[in-house]
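FORM 7B: Structural annotation worksheet

SECTION A. Query
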Amino acid sequence: MSMPNIIDVEEQPLHGHIITEVTDERGVTHEAVITTPKDSEKDIKVPVFMIGGVPRGGENSSLSPHEYHPYLAEFAQSGVTSMVQSPAGVGISNGDTLKETMATRISASVSGVQKLLRETGFPASNLCLLGNSMGAYIALGTAEQLDALGVSVAKIVLLSPATYDIRLENTKFSDSFAQVMEGQEADYEGSRAIEYLSTYEGKLMTSFLKSDIPKPILPEVKQLFDEELARAYLDGRGFGRGYLNVGHSFRALSESGDAKLAMQKALAAAAKEVTYFITEF
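SECTION B. Predicted structure
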C-alpha cells in the first residue's frame, strides 16, 4: 500500500509509520496511519487519535499534510503515539463522502480509537482525542460513545471547535446545512457536544484562532466553549491557548514575507503547546 496523502514526508521525515485500515460498523474501510515515537525508550504510552474538519472528498484528505505534519512530528519526538484516519470517500478510504453524516463519522472514529488501542496495547486510561473545527464536534461525540463502552478519555484537545444543532447530526454532507436549518433557530446549547462537555471530567484544552470569529465560528458558539473551559479551570483541568498567527484549520494569516515559513513556524509553536498539554499538564 502506498503512503496515504494525509502525511507529508517531504519536509521532515516522520518515524515509525504503521499504515493500517479501520473497518467501521457499517463495513466501510478507512485508511489510517499510526505514527510512533522516534525513540522507543522515550515512549510514554499515550495514544492520541486526531480528527480533522469537514471532509473534502476525492483525492484530497480533510487533514492537509501541511496542517498536521508538525503535530505528528512533535508527538513522535516527545514519545507520543498518534493516529490519523481518513473519513469515508477521502484518499483511499472507500464509501461516499456525500452520503456521510456527523453521526457516521463519530461511529467511524470510535472504531478507529478501538483499533489504535488494540494495535498499541496502551492503557485506555491514557487516551487523548484531538479535533479541530467540525472534528472537535466529532471528538466530543466519540468521547461520549466511548464512555458508554467503558472507555474514559483522559484528555481532549479542541482546536477552533465548532458545534452544531443536534438536528444536523444525521444530515448528509450532500445536503446544505443552511437549507436544513433555514427558518429554524439553531439550538447550540442543546447540541451533543456542549451537553457532553458539561459532564466531562477529564482534562480539557481549547484554542480559538484569530480568524475564527465571527466566521466560521460564531461568537455565541465560542462563548459556550469558553464557559466550559472556565469550569475546567476551576477544577484544575483547563488549559486554554490562542495562536494568533494561525488561521482556521491551522492556516497562516501572514500576507507578507515568506508565507510558507511563517506557517511552518506558527504550526510548530502550536504543536509544542498541544504536546505540552498532552505530556505534561
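SECTION C. Observations
The chain has one domain: 17-279. The helical segments are 65-77, 102-120, 134-148, 177-181, 192-197, 219-234, 259-279.

SECTION D. Sign-off
Analyst initials: ____
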